[in-house]
Amino acid sequence: MKKSRNSVLVLGAGIAGIQASLDLAEMGVGVHLVEGTPTIGGRMPQLDKTFPTNDCSMCILSPKMSECVRHPLITLHIKSSLEKIEGAPGDFRCTVIERAKYVDPVKCVSCGLCEEKCPVKIDDVFDEGLRKTKAISRYFLQSIPSEYTINAGHCLYLTKGVCRLCEKVCPTGAINYGDMDREIELNVNAVILATGIDPYDPIGFGHFGYRRYSNVVTSLEFERMLSASGPLSGHVARASDGRAPENIAFIQCVGSRDISIDRNYCSSACCMFAIKQSIIAREHNRDLSATIFYMDIRAFGKDFDRYYEKAQEQYGVEFVRSKVAEVRELRNGNLELKYTFENGDIQHREFDMVVLSIGLQPRAGSRELSGKLDIGLNRFGFCRSDTFRPLNTTRDGVFVCGAMNGPKDNPESVVSASGAVAGAMEYLDAARYEPSAGGGGVPEKHVTGERPRIGVFVCHCGINIAGVVDVKDVAAYAAGLPNVEHAENVVYACSTDCLETIKSRVAEHDLNRVVVAACTPRTHEPLFRQTISEAGLNPYLFEMANIRDQCSWAHMDEPEQATSKSKDLVEMAVAKARGLTPLERLPIEIDPEALVIGGGLSGMSAALSIADAGHDVYLVERAEDLGGNMRDIFFNFDGSDPQEFLSGLIDRVLGHNRIKVWRKASIEDITGYVGNFRTKLTGESGELEELSHGAVVVATGGQEHETEEYQYGRSSRVVTQKEFERMLHDGSFPAGRLREVVMIQCVGSREEGRMYCSRICCSKAVKNALQLRKRKPRANIYFAVRDVRTYGFAEEHYSELRDSGALFFRYTPDSKPTAELIDPEDPHSRVRVTVLDPVLEKEVVIDADLLVLATAIDALPENLKLARMLKVPLNSDGMFLEAHVKLRPVDFATEGIFVCGLAHGPKDMSESLVQARAAAGRALTFLRKKSILAEGTIAEVRRERCSGCGYCQAVCAYSAIEVDPEEQVAVVNDALCKGCGACVASCRCGALDLRGFSNIQLYSVFNSLVRETAEGVVN
Amino acid sequence: MSEWQPRILAILCNWCSYAGADLAGVSRIQYPPNIRVVRVPCSGRVDPLFILKSLQAGFDGVLVSGCHPGDCHYISGNYVARRRFAILKPLLEFVGIEPDRVQFSWISAGEGERFATVVTKVVEDVRKLGPSKRIVKKA
User: Fold this and answer.
1) 3-class DSSP state for residue A574?
2) Chain A residues lying within 8 Å of B74, measured CB to CB
3) Distance in angstroms (rounded) separating the CA atoms of residues A410 and A407
4) Which of the 8 DSSP states describes residue A571?
5) What is the 3-state secondary structure (H, E, C) of B65-85?
6) Mean pLDDT of A833-859
7) What is the predicted pLDDT for the residue at A146?
8) Which CATH number fits domain A1-99+181-196+363-429: 3.50.50.60, 3.30.460.80, 3.65.10.10, 3.40.50.300?
9) What CATH number has the domain bearing residue B76?
10) Do residues A58 and A228 make contact, with C-beta atoms less than 8 angstroms apart?
11) Digit-coded pLDDT (tens) for A261-284
């Protein structure tokens, strides 16, 4: 293997590994993506929908999967494992074993004949064993790469030496029983680990009856049942009798928050997962009732609490705070739950089905992997990383992302992936590069003004198409269509030899448009476009007719209909092709500098990551000092010192020769677009300065909510958690006795006006309470809480606090605690707190020496002004709204602008650091390039027709079209336009059109099937 | 002569509904062969004129399908489309085009089964209405 410089090995091709690979490749870095299963995608394809938007999981993932497999800089190693990392960071030598696939991926055309004939049925792992698959198969229908592989452990020939049926039926001779495992050596600069998590196997939970009772399923099995592409096609049914369940119980924390099985951590995602499943199940069946048995509902993410509210109010999901002691099967297959309330009361209830919300645990074999790669694990077996180095493993040059170092949901995994990439940049060559336009350097033929000369290639796809559709007839029909110069049949249009055929036909017949009638353009259009550009044609002079997915596969029993439909589809494609014009992807120059707005933890970290990668950074802070909210944080669970870290960070920022800092500065105006922003700001001197830069990172932070509740401001003994932390730090406790300390959570959060969880307050309060324990061991600590949301590894500290004797009282918004000053005249008065104890069912009165309020995190009111300048949206809480909550969590829809830290939503220091790195990483995917290519299919304006009404501007989600105030005509920004066409269809003057999907092109498609007959015109 | 078969034009967005049609195919779900699919980037690209022109060109019915609300690959294109169709619907009725002839739906990339169901329904609805005559071009 030849030595490859400037490359990174990514282990694990789930959403985190995919994102890391794409980001690296976008920066011009070579990637070796090593994955154990036969497909990329990881856990996400198993999911039906994703919370809190109910996005279809595959819809949002599959574009990333195909991008990943197509990217020229990403080399996929499926069915492979990483065995060894040797050498020093920056120059690692990695040993990878690629396991035998027994199917030649170059020859395999994924026709599926082998799977049909294979006699060996095995449990389908992807469908959680709810369906059977074969010993030769694809991992799942939309697997990428799509080629088949043989499961050597089950194949009759490989195990017993008999059968060879797949070899006999394979039309391309792709089966290779002699395939062997191969050991390869890869030289890379850095390694990113993203092996993810495993679901907890509840087989040990005998009292819940998993595997003994057929109607007890895990949440992952239930997810496959809900999925439209799952084994039950989305029709949930009981295994015992096939009946649709009418009431379902969800049992939370199975395998989480459980000391008895050494899993004293919170899996963080299961509450939302169960809420989502109950909503989706209700959407499938309006009469269904869903009940969730839980300890605390941990809906701590952005917009999660609203989703929780929605489940209760709109979907009638019932939430029962209790512990389930036992599940018993009744004769009719129903299940009886026995559960205990906090006050000890026991109840029984019958359900049709029980879903176990299983927790997340380290991947099987992670201990072995950690030994092989020499990386540390934490005490639960997750990859170890520290608060202030959240993306680093214990080995230099080896980074971690995704759920491998602790339970995470999708967006957090994506964020950490982009963050790990920014970390890996340290070991990579910082030179900027010019991305190539493709086409393999073949000069483009000039076709404008020429008569269309169309070539049509009708694919057999083995027997996939030819077995149903009369492909010869279709080709003959195509040959007779106007402007068709050549038509022929090809066995596999996408095979290497057929691609060569297409290229030579272009030359022989001087074709200037190509139509391929085969499968779906969603997977194959890029390949054919590449092919014709190698033949000297502009890649946009290509059109596809999907006669496999839409004809032969959808009408298998109606060959005549399928054939005539195929002819129509070809005719429509030819009509479209006739009007196609060459399109250009114009380069947009990118300024290499970045503007970072906000000098807190996030802003400084983002600035450093970008500057360390060799780019100039302009860091703008409105306050006098750098540091932001972190200046008030003094403790960490792991004992590290935030202030020490902060001062080190500030020193590095101020001393960095690539970072220029403005303090007491304000931004007056930002104009421009990706790669070409112009910013006006006034600094300390009051002088107006103008900067140009290629990207913007928004890290403006947030602020503590100012409350008027609970006597705050009327006694020095009522403080916020932030003030309390400083008190703990410098010992400035109120004078006198400090025996009774009350902490009230959710002050301002999760209620009208602020319907969100501020995420960090529970962990922060627990942390501070533990600090108080150290200083005042005899103090009594009381908590008034709604749900305790110490997610992830903070759960352990919550247990520690409870074990130390702290008392927790639950309250609801209707029964909030009350606080009265004992002496209203005294500015240092003690406070009488009354809280209803739901366990004792009576009021508890505490005369508190100190009352600590966990106040909400508010968005900055200044966000609005900045959002308007940048033309990016805020959510209803005033926080910046990312492009996509799941898969583009630090990007804005407007390219070149990124968000991190509290400006995006509440999060702790570690999470802010990760997100800051991610924003830096994403910004670098642009900054590392000297130019980017604009889309070819973009909107264009016919100036003479435009009335300047501005309706297009109002519908554009990307701020890509604006009315020029002087000329009063709309102007498209080629750099920002994504080519959706919303503006085109909105234009009331017909002044707009979409290249590649123009009105004329589409009308000719609609009109292509008009046939003239004696009775007039019919189609 | 066999029974009259309606001809339906389906305008599908690339990212969700077209992918849903693909999944229906890959899953070998069978549905009536009466539709002809046109792919557009987004349901937001669909000009109301497309629908009228298709009917004029002799199609008996039109199905327009995009991503579910909230799922749009282009953030909000399907909302724009939804608003446009809400206005188009009464207009079609006003000019005498039966409401079932032009239908809108949201189909995701994971809903192959739903794609087949929607197509089957549209075909059956239009079959009941008979051939479209209202604005068909006369030679």
Assistant:
1) helix
2) 957, 978, 980, 982
3) 10
4) H
5) EECCCCCCCCCCHHHHHHHHH
6) 94
7) 85
8) 3.50.50.60
9) 3.40.50
10) no
11) 999 999 999 999 999 999 999 988
**Residue B76 is part of which domain span?**
8-129
Residue B89 covered by a domain = yes
Q: Which CATH class is domain A198-360?
A: alpha beta
Tell me how crowded residue A239 is: count the other CB atoms within 10 A of its CB: 15
Chain A residues in contact with B9 (beta carbon < 8 A): 1006
The pTM of this model reads: 0.85
pLDDT digits (tens, 9 = 90+) for A518-527: 998 987 888 8
> What dotted CATH number matches A454-578?
3.40.50
**pLDDT at position A437, please?**
56
Size of interface A-B (CB pairs under 8 A): 188
Q: Do A1006 and B16 touch (CB under 8 A)?
A: no
Cα B108 from chain centre: 14
- CA closest to A50 among chain B residues: B71
**DSSP character at residue A600:** B
A1016: chain B residues, CB-CB within 8 Å: 136, 138-139
Task: Enter the tokens of residue A369.
Answer: 């992997």
| Average pLDDT over every residue of A343-349 | 94
Answer whether residue B102 is part of any domain: yes
Quick one: which of B53, B104, B51 has its CA closest to B82?
Answer: B104
Candidates 3.30.70, 3.30.300, 3.30.160, 3.10.20; correct CATH number of A100-179?
A: 3.30.70
pLDDT tens-digit readout, A497-549: 788 899 999 999 999 999 999 998 987 888 899 889 989 999 999 999 999 99
CATH architecture for segment(s) A935-1007: 2-Layer Sandwich (3.30)
Class for domain A593-698+869-932, per CATH? alpha beta
Share of chain A above pLDDT 70, in %: 98
Name residues whose C-beta falls within 8 Å of residue A446's C-beta, 6 or more positions apart in sequence: none
- Cβ-defined contact of A1009 to B114 (cutoff 8 Å): no
Judged against a pLDDT cut of 70, whether residue A635 lies above it is answered with yes
Q: How would DSSP label each residue in A712-743?
A: TTT-TTEEEHHHHHHHHHHT-PPSS---EEEE
Contact A44, A142 (CB under 8 A): no
- Whether A459 and A552 have beta carbons less than 8 Å apart is answered as no
* pLDDT tens-digit map of A409-447: 999 999 999 999 999 998 998 788 877 655 556 888 999
Q: What is the mean pLDDT of residues B39-63?
A: 94
Return the residue of B nearest to A1010 by Cα: B57
In degrees rounded to 5, what are phi and psi of residue B71? -95, 0
Of B14, B13, B17, residue with least CA distance to B116 = B17
Is pLDDT of A407 > 90?
yes
Parallel/antiparallel/unpaired status of strands A353-358 and A360-362: unpaired
Å between A737 CA and nearest CA of chain B: 56
- Whether residue B59 is contained in a domain is answered as yes
Q: What angle do CA A602, A272, A216 make, to 5 degrees?
A: 145
Domain residue extents for chain A: 1-99+181-196+363-429, 100-179, 198-360, 454-578, 593-698+869-932, 704-858, 935-1007
Domain count for chain B: 1
> Given an 8 Å threshold on Cβ–Cβ distance, is B67 in contact with A548?
no
Look at residue A3 and tell me whether its pLDDT is greater than 60.
no
Collect all residues with Cβ–Cβ distance below 8 Å to A374 and sequence separation of at least 6: A85, A395
Per-residue model confidence (pLDDT) at position A441: 67
**Token couple for A977:** 């336009």
Q: Same topology for domains A1-99+181-196+363-429 and A593-698+869-932, yes or no?
A: yes
ipTM here = 0.97
The fold of the A704-858 domain, in CATH, is FAD/NAD(P)-binding domain (3.50.50)
Partners of residue B71 in chain A, C-beta under 8 Å: 53, 55-56, 59-60
Residue A319 CB partners (closer than 8 Å, separation 6+): A291, A292, A294, A297, A312
